[in-house]
Amino acid sequence: MMEDSFGMEEESDDEWFYSSIRRYDDLLMYDVHGDISCSTFYDSTKILLGVSRGSLHELLLLGVPDKLLAGRNAGLVKSRDFNQVAAAYTAGSVKKLVRVGSRVVVAEERGIYLYSVPDPNNASDVISLLSTLKKDVDGKTVLAVSGDHVYAGDSLSNLTLLDLSSEKTHVPVTLSNATKRNGDISEIVEVS
């Protein structure tokens, strides 16, 4: 150990690392190659991530390892790593993900898109782009989800109804009219 100018002993980096490991019963560390721009749980065993590496942007559906699902002091568990279930390349950095059934509404830098996640019984591992819901989104975007309806716009008073069942865009609506017609809004997010 070395003495610093205040007379206190200074721990080496190695000693600090080993002492911090001793503090944890179950220390699990994971690495994703790239920057995670957003994430959401797809279901109780899968997580959906928006990941960027330079100019490459991806949407990843990952299976959560059994070790994380088993809880503390589970002992030896078969699966300790995330596994890729499905993936897609996106045109821009993913800002927000909203799951709607087996589909995902994705707010990216350049627009709002609808993707389809493959069924677990399907051999495909490709998340498919179904349609462009809104193009040329500049700056702030508001997303509100209610059942099969997505409301998107630059403010709560200027929203466009995007009907996912028909994949059609309807005339601009206000949030108060939307909530009267379709019940409660399950999620409102602002994407900058």
Task: Tag the structure with descriptive keywords.
single chain; 192 residues; mainly beta; five-stranded antiparallel beta sheet; four-stranded antiparallel beta sheet; disordered N terminus; Wdr73
Explain this structure to me?
The chain is mainly β and 192 residues long. Residues 1-8 and 180-184 have low confidence and may be disordered. It has one domain. It has helices at residues 13-22, 66-70, 175-182; strands spanning 2-3, 9-10, 35-43, 46-53, 56-63, 83-90, 94-100, 103-108, 111-116, 128-135, 141-146, 149-155, 158-163, 168-173, 187-191. The radius of gyration is 22 Å and the shape is elongated. The chain has three helices and 15 strands. The chain has a five-stranded antiparallel beta sheet with strand order 14-13-12-11-15, covered by helices on one side. Strands 3-4-5-6 form a four-stranded antiparallel beta sheet, with no helix packed on it.
Write a brief structural summary:
By secondary structure, this protein is mostly beta strands. The chain has helices at 13-22, 66-70, 175-182, and strands at residues 2-3, 9-10, 35-43, 46-53, 56-63, 83-90, 94-100, 103-108, 111-116, 128-135, 141-146, 149-155, 158-163, 168-173, 187-191.
